[in-house]
Write a structure and sequence with these properties.
Elements (H helix, E strand, L loop, with lengths): L7 E10 L11 H4 L9 E4 L5 H8 L7 H5 L2 H12 L5 E4 L4 H8 L4 E5 H10 L4 E13 L11 H11 L2 H6 L7 E2 L2 H4 L27 E2 L2 H20 L1
Parallel strand pairs: 2-3, 2-4, 5-7
Antiparallel strand pairs: 1-4, 1-5, 1-6
Helix pairs in contact: 2-4
Length: 238
Amino acid sequence: MECGPAGLYYSTIYAYNRKYMGEQTPSSIEDFFDLDKFPGRRGMRRVPFANLEFALIADGVPIDEVYATLDTADGIDRAFAKLDTIKDDVVWWEAGAQPPQMLADGEVLMSTAYNGRIFNAQILEAQPFVIVWDGQLLSLGGPLAIVAGTPRIEAALAFVRFANRPQSLANISKYISYSPTRLSAETLVGTHLETGIDMHPHMPASAENMRRALKSDWRWWSEHRDELNERFSAWLAR
């Protein structure tokens, strides 16, 4: 970005617990909204962010047209109309630790979640969770910027350069399933430090998982967050 580099990608995905799923398993964001094919409660975060994007993708809006669609009154209405189709079956969560617990307890059949939380439950707690990457919403994390006027500008620049080296970025993946933002770092991703598993299949920005990924438009949300939070709260109350 203009004022600072972001070091990693994390994503909002949805996941399910194999223990509570039948022979037929979901594979698309459309399946998350299909209560006939997959009856059961859904977990979703109690905010409009990600939910509106998921709703439009599930309603057939092409990935590259999601924010252009949300930029119109009809597009926002369309997203809320799609959410209406599952609203009565949604269990709302607010903290990132909740979706893994809800899935483990069978409180919901599927839930949106942060990919790192589901990874930890899969790998460190041996939970039989499956991430559906289709329609994932990629977000940037770990941005670094230098405060104007700092008396230690050379030290600050040295740290930013160090933190954004390909190997430094790739090293994050030793601990959690967050992708480096630099292409030159992707080939340096290796194994999980604690368990030794290959981290490539768990990376949000891997070629396989990026086939139908949407990059979150933080500029769009910075301009519309307040109004949509208000509308979302009113929608929840109805």
